[in-house]
Specification:
Elements (H helix, E strand, L loop, with lengths): L2 H21 L6 H14 L3 H33 L22
């Protein structure tokens, strides 16, 4: 499978996952996308699609990790220090999420 075929496959898989999230009227965010892709990987019988799904999940997790590191670095450079508090789950709250206390 060449690069452009693989990219088309991954684009289609991401589209399927997002469409499933939209159909269920659930949240559409990175965490929900990873969960949906993991579910798709579990039931997928085609080894090429399963490998593509695994690659997509890895890429999303890597992107999120790099974003969190950049945000921590930015906070340190802005404040000079982060004090004794470090964001464990990312510095940003997901859009559309409301805290209920």
């Amino acid at each position: 499978m060449n690069r452009s075929e693989f990219e088309k496959l991954t684009d289609g898989i991401i589209g399927e996952a997002v469409f499933s999230l939209l159909k269920r009227k659930g949240p559409v965010n990175n965490k929900a996308l990873i969960v949906e892709l993991s579910n798709m990987e579990t039931i997928e019988s085609d080894p090429h699609r399963r490998a593509a799904i695994k690659s997509i999940i890895t890429e999303i997790k890597t992107m999120l990790s790099e974003r969190d590191k950049a945000e921590r670095k930015k906070a340190i450079s802005k404040n000079g220090t982060t004090g004794n508090v470090l964001p464990l789950f990312g510095a940003r709250q997901q859009q559309g999420m409301k805290k209920i206390h």
